[in-house]
Structures are given as structure tokens and as C-alpha cells.
Amino acid sequence: xxxxxxxxxxxxxxxxxxxxxxxxxxxxxxxxxxxxxxxxxxxxxxxxxxxxxxxxxxxxxxxxxxxxxxxxxxxxxxxxxxxxxxxxxxxxxxxxxxxxxxxxxxxxxxxxxxxxxxxxxxxxxxxxxxxxxxxxxxxxxxxxxxxxxxxxxxxxxxxxxxxxxxxxxxxxxxxxxxxxxxxxxxxxxxxxxxxxxxxxxxxxxxxxxxxxxxxxxxxxxxxxxxxxxxxxxxxxxxxxxxxxxxxxxxxxxxxxxxxxxxxxxxxxxxxxxxxxxxxxxxxxxxxxxxxxxxxxxxxxxxxxxxxxxxxxxxxxxxxxxxxxxxxxxxxxxxxxxxxxxxxxxxxxxxxxxxxxxxxxxxxxxxxxxxxxxxxxxxxxxxxxxxxxxxxxxxxxxxxxxxxxxxxxxxxxxxxxxxxxxxxxxxxxxxxxxxxxxxxxxxxxxxxxxxxxxxxxxxxxxxxxxxxxxxxxxxxxxxxxxxxxxxxxxxxxxxxxxxxxxxxxxxxxxxxxxxxxxxxxxxxxxxxxxxxxxxxxxxxxxxxxxxxxxxxxxxxxxxxxxxxxxxxxxxxxxxxxxxxxxxxxxxxxxxxxxxxxxxxxxxxxxxxxxxxxxxxxxxxxxxxxxxxxxxxxxxxxxxxxxxxxxxxxxxxxxxxxxxxxxxxxxxxxxxxxxxxxxxxxxxxxxxxxxxxxxxxxxxxxxxxxxxxxxxxxxxxxxxxxxxxxxxxxxxxxxxxxxxxxxxxxxxxxxxxxxxxxxxxxxxxxxxxxxxxxxxxxxxxxxx
Length: 782
What we know:
Layout lengths: L33 H12 L1 H18 L19 H13 L8 E5 L6 H15 L9 E8 L14 E8 L5 H15 L6 E5 L1 H35 L3 H28 L8 H28 L4 H28 L7 H32 L26 H6 L2 H19 L7 E2 L11 H12 L8 E6 L7 H12 L4 E5 L20 E8 L6 H21 L5 E5 L1 H35 L3 H28 L5 E2 L2 H27 L5 H28 L7 H36 L4 H12 L21
Parallel strand pairs: 5-10
Antiparallel strand pairs: 1-3, 1-4, 2-3, 6-8, 6-9, 7-8
Helix pairs in contact: 1-9, 1-10, 2-7, 2-10, 5-6, 6-7, 6-8, 6-19, 7-8, 7-10, 8-9, 8-10, 8-19, 9-10, 9-16, 9-18, 12-17, 12-20, 14-15, 15-16, 16-17, 16-18, 17-18, 17-20, 18-19, 18-20, 19-20
């Protein structure tokens, strides 16, 4: 088809790829479908009512609905009671009447050596707590001091320098109350001569993580809002446009936090407070993306001489189906995490899906209504020359010369190979990616709980704060002293085990029944691992131990014995194993959801599959870069277990958004001309808006790194890098090159013929005669 056959997208003869707004004549030839036109007219007509209803809904949500995260943020809420490690600890308590594991510890340390009086007082104080002589210590029920004096604990790195007092409470005491009780006990019964370093352990670390997130949330929100304001203001040369975007995003955020909180409460699905920064970043970025496209369409229409109501109707009819499809795709993609077996993922996925869905619904109603009310005022800048051509406020996108080159098969093919090779190379570190569930190590190095843990590990071993409990159950098993001693010696030799305490240790009084039950039907060991107990290395050590355990039992002469393991490392192992086992289900559900919406929107199969494959390459490269930075370069003991999967699902969903925004216009334009020509025309037009939207979203996610916790920084890096790769490499280069090559391999207008067949079957006119269903003015997506 020639340009003469498409008068609504005429391009000046001087440069076929020119992107000057004034060159697009006439814009008014675009005709929306009757349904979209009716929707646009209704929204514009009811503009004041729509704004009032959203404001009333937001106020009602704040007054009547609970906030997201109310009711707790403990990891215990996300760990199933059916977790084998939890069941093992419960059985151990039933058998012995006293727990062997504590997750709260008070650390005393002096590298020069602790005085004998301090060590004696620690033992006396702990005995008094256990006998109930300190009523003010409640809810602490017992205290057990462990010293590295005289090598009483095998595997200690030092001697006579460190005391760890483990504090025990009832199981129903919340994490926050356990930490508060430990801190109160330390303040009331220790003084400066006791060399107290601090309170630490997995429970205090978990509580402190939540406190850090909530304390940094206002600062994070303020910086993110400022960043979004600057980006949008620069993109539109306006101070009102970013205010509009932030106002709409604010409505979506408030509604999400309260509607999500009500749903979580009604459905009984715990959503930790720590997800709030991610929800805020997601909504700020996604809603701003949607506003950018509406604003671009209104600006183009106003520049062509339309009034504010016509411009608002045009933008609404033009972009509502695209934004609705993109939002539904992203919501379905993130919501796909609900198929996971892990409670953590099931809590995370629906929250993200609801957030995107609410953001989309707010965007497709409130934004058109506000634009119809504000009109040119939405693009007002304090120093704009009123006499200037409105189109001058929108600098022309880059020349279409690169786009035309990219659609030539001889150029597209090597570019395709180069991009694919680069992304695959960046993804290679994923091969050795490992996962952990770190709490203490995730804290800032100068945090008191982190410092106390470091001091404890210096005196003993890295796993001292979260030992692993091995429980043996069987008739008379505790009476087999020789076999139990032999097993203990074999366990000591397992690589990664720094120390072990059990029935074979004479230093532990038998009357305490710590390692042999009174009915002789159970025995247990306490294993201290050489590595950070919730990291990937310790999880690997426990995996090897469980594999070797049947053979070790046979060698020790212990037959017909049931074994189980408890402790933080065992819990982490179950979480990591479940996460890995969820990989197939999550990947299949997320990819299927994204593919389905792409197929419905593009009414094709091969192209959506190709576009999704490009997204997968970008996701792999982002995760590879994250693995290289945090695990290989910074030395983290594995990535936080949920980071790679949450990032992958979000990137897949958001990548489909950019597929729809970027390739959708070209696909529509291909109804009237060869696909390669359509790409050459539409790529320059859509590239700038996508880059602006993607940069805004990447900054929103990247600012999560302001929260000084390693999981947030891992997620911030993975999402920011993935979005930038998707927008600047995949959508701008790789996908157009791939489609150009596919079009060439399919013969002249091969892909276009597929489109023709689809429309003929649906009873439409031929592409040559068909009026396009979407105008693609140069700055409609700029």
C-alpha cells in the first residue's frame, strides 16, 4: 500500500520516518468502534461525578476498611503448621517437656576474656529466671546460658570470651513481644560490667526487618514521588502533568492498601507489612505509565486544534482498550502466583494482582475524567509561551532512520543475533544461583542485632544462634548409649557441621532430660552449623545430612528409628525446596496468562509466542545480573528465596504491558501495509513514551534500594535492570528485529496475510480498503 492510500498517516516526502507532529494530517480520520466511542462519551459527560465518586470511595476506604498488613508481619504467619520442621519441634517438646531451640538470645562478649564473676552471675541469673524468681521477666519462662569457656561447647572459635543466654517463651507469644521482653530483661538485670552486646536471633531480626521497612516507608514514598514528578515534568515540560499522575496514583495506592487489607482479613490470607513498599512502587510506576499515554494522546489532539472535551474523548477511546488489556495482563500475570504451594507466594501474588487491577480501573476512569475537566491546563507550564505552536511543546522523537534500518532483514538478522547473544550471556550466572532465607544477614551491618550476632559467631560458630535439632524416635532408643555415641561422632564428621551436643556429652546433667526422654522413647541432638544458618550453604549442608542420615543410622546400629529435623535451617530448607518445586507451576501459569492476553489482543499465535520469548530473555538477563552482583561479587550466601520468582513474574507481566503499548500500534497499522513498513512508521512514535514510562517504573522500583535490607536491594536491582532491558533492548531493538525477520521468512507480507485471514473470517473489509482502527499519530504515544 502506498502513502496515498493512507491519508490519515501521511508522512512528508522529505523523510519517510519523520516524526514531526505537524506532518500528521489529518488526525481526525480515526474512528473508534461504537462501543469505545460510547464509553468515551459517557466518561467525559460524567466527568465531575466520576471524580466525586473516586474521592468518596477513597475516603470511605480509609474510614471503614483496615490497612494492608494489620494483624501482623511475622514469618510464622507465612510458614504452614504442616511444615515438617515445625512438626518435628512440636513432637520434641511433647516428648521432653522442654524445648531445645530458642530463637531469641542475649549476647555477652569481651574479646579480652570475661571475668569469672560475670560467667557465674550469668548462670545464676538464668537459673533464677527458669525457677520463676524474676516476675518482671515474663513472658520469658526459661533461660539457658551457653559459654565458650573451657571448650564446653565443641567447635568454639575462642575460649572464655562469649556467653549466649537463650531465652524461652510460650509458643503463643508474638515475635514483637518476645523481642520486647528480652530487651526489657537485659535492661533490668544487666549492667555495664556484664559486657552485654545486645539481643539477637532470627526472631529479633525478623521484627527489626519489619521496623526498618515501616520506618523507611515515608522517606521512600517521598523520594519516589519526587522522582516521578521530575521525570513526568521533564517529559511533558509541565508542572501540572506530574501532579495529575501522582494524584491518580495516590488514589490507587490508598484504595489498594485498604481494599487489599479487607480482602486479606476476609480471606484469612496474611500479607506482611513489608510488601507495602513494593505495592507503592508498583502502583506509582504502573499508574504513571497509564497516565503518560493518556496525556500524550490529549496533547497530540490539542496540538491539532481539538477542544478539551474532544481531546479527552479521543484519548479515552484510543488508549482505554490498550491500558485495560495491559492492566488485565499484568494483574493476571502477577496473580498467577496464587497457584504456588508456598504460603509466602500465595500471599504475595494476589496482592500484586489486586494492586495492578485497581490501578488500571482507576486509570481508565479517573484520568479521562480529569483530562476532560482540565484540558490544556493539564499540560500547563509556568514559562510556556502562549503564542507558540502547541506542538512545539512536544519535542519530536528520534529520526525514523534507525527504525527503517531495523526493519530490513539484512540488518535485522545480525542485530537479532547480537541482542539474543548478549542477553543469553548476561543470563549465564543463573546456572549457579542459590537461594536462602536470611534474616540476620539481611540487616545493615551496623544494626545492633546484626552486631550482636557477629560477636556471638566470633566466639562460637556461625550457626550458634540458630542450631538444628535432630530428633530420634523409637522404642527404647534413648537407652542405646553406645549406638547414640557412635552416631554423634559420625554426625560431627559431616562437612558443614561445626559442633554437636547430644546424649554422648557427659557435661550435660542427665536429670535435665535435655537429650534423652524420661520414657527412653526419644533422643535428640543439637547441631551447630559452620555457616549462616538461613543461608544457601547451610541449607545445602542440611540437605546432604538428610541424605546421609539413613546410612549413618545403619552404621551406628540404630534400626527402626524415625528421624526428623527442626530449627531455622530446617524451616529454610523446606521453604527453599517448596519454592523450587513451585517454579514449574508459577512459570507455566504466569506465561500462560501473559500469552493468552497477548493472543486475544493481537489475534495471532506465532507473534505473541515470539514476543513472550523476548521477554523471557530479558528476565533471564536481569536475574543473571542480579546473581552476579549479589551472590558472586558481593558474596551473599544465596539470593533471598522469593526475589528471583517475584521479580520474574512482575517482569513478565510488565513486559507484556510494553508488548501491547509498543507492538500493538504496529500490529494495527499492519492491517493496511506490510508489517515491516508498519514497524518503521510506528516504532519512532511509540519508543519515546515507552522509554519514559519504563524509566519511571524502573526508578520507582530502583528506589526500593533505599530500604537498607538485602532482599529489597536484590529486588530493586532485578526489577530496575529487567525493566530497562525490556524497554531499551527488547522493545526497541530485539522484538522489532525478530518480527522483521519473521515477516521476511514468511514470504512477502507473510505475517500480514495472517492478519488478513483473521479479519476476513471476522467479516471485515480487506486491509487495503479498511479504515484503520487506531490512529498512530507521531506523538500519540510520545
